[in-house]
Amino acid sequence: FDAVELIRLKRDGGRLPEAGIDWLIDAYTHGSVTDEQMAAMAMAIFFRGLNPDELSRWTNAMIASGERMSFARLSRPTVDKHSTGGVGDKITLPLAPLVAACGAAVPQLSGRGLGHTGGTLDKLEAIPGWRAALSNDEMLAQLEDVGAVICAAGSGLAPADKKLYALRDVTGTVESIPMISASIMSKKIAEGTASLVLDVKTGAGAFMKRREDSQALARTMVEIGKAAGVRTVALITAMDTPLGRTAGNGLEVAESVEILAGGGPSDVRELTLALATEMLACAGIDADPAQVLDSGKAMDTWKAMIRAQGGDPDAPLPVARHTEVIPAAADGYLTRLDAMAVGLAAWRLGAGRAKQGDPVQAAAGVTWHASVGDRVSAGQPLFTLHTDTPERLERAVQAIADAAEISAEPVARGDIVLERIS
Ligand code: URA
What we know:
Shape: globular
Bound molecules: uracil
CATH class of the largest domain: Alpha Beta
Structural class: alpha/beta
CATH superfamily of the largest domain: Nucleoside phosphorylase/phosphoribosyltransferase catalytic domain
Strand order of the largest sheet: 1-4-5-13
Oligomer: single chain
Order of helices and strands: HHHHEHEHHEHHEHEEHHHHEEHEEEHEE
Largest sheet: 4 strands, mixed
Helix content: 40-55%
Number of strands: 13
Number of helices: 16
Strand content: 15-25%
CATH architecture of the largest domain: 3-Layer(aba) Sandwich
């Protein structure tokens, strides 16, 4: 095959031949198709799409670029969750130990954050001693003993995606439903989970702002999963308002621990239980996750999971050196809290990174003291900004200035789970 011929074919709306897709992904992974050529192909796919057969072949070629793990020897059924990312989305932290405490094995291969939504590994690294890197053998042993692992995806899984995702990130070609679907699903299928629950976010703070795009993404990923023999279900969930009361690494760990203790913000608890219910159904486990959460068993599993990776679950979390409180400007009801603005403020305070490899602050972030629908009084604290570097405060204050809307009339907070796609 010739890369330029394949690019022209897709550019003009043609269908890529199956063997051509295999060749392209392999040649790109090994460097004989260049970044410039793959960037042109990504842009052609951005505009022309991939039909279901092309997409299935593309996903399989990305899986074949690396190793495939197997959990077949475990005594517990495996089930994984993937979220497309949202502000304050710390659900993996309480969810993985909860579902493990119900009897499943939960292999959460996670990433670091880039942009306004945090990464699960960045959050857990706020815990003193905790390490993200595990060998495959360590991961398997922990899955059998504890039931839950949250760790860094090894470089051996879908290396074609690693290269292609980084290229898409700098060429304006991330927002393509077939390429996002192939990227996410190739990693999950290569990981070897038997079941997968997808949390596809929709709304102002999500990657997909429009409901119909979120539905299309969810349907596409569910189809790819099923075709590969992975039981796959998606929930479409609201991401206009940030989840819980905190955005920031250590702050989100603390909130997750509240959930594991049976308390915490009601929206975080609700979404954790909704996803746990789906995961347990996929895994064929008959358990009541609310009862397991309230019994303290999920907390025990959390502590065992943190300890198994070198962390001290009882150590105090880092506290930011500087805080600034922003009071409510008026009396009334909180009627809107903009997820994007809150995420941007947390990012500017040091919770997120501007480019891959930058450090993040464990204690930086935003706490909001009211949820949508709550009554607030003028002068009462509405936000607390946390950072170790006070020079960041000014731009964070700007980011959050218009995040909240206070009105005389109350509004009901909308549903979190909007739709289920299977
Ligand atoms: N997350 C991924 O892993 N890949 C994408 O393409 C987009 C989001």
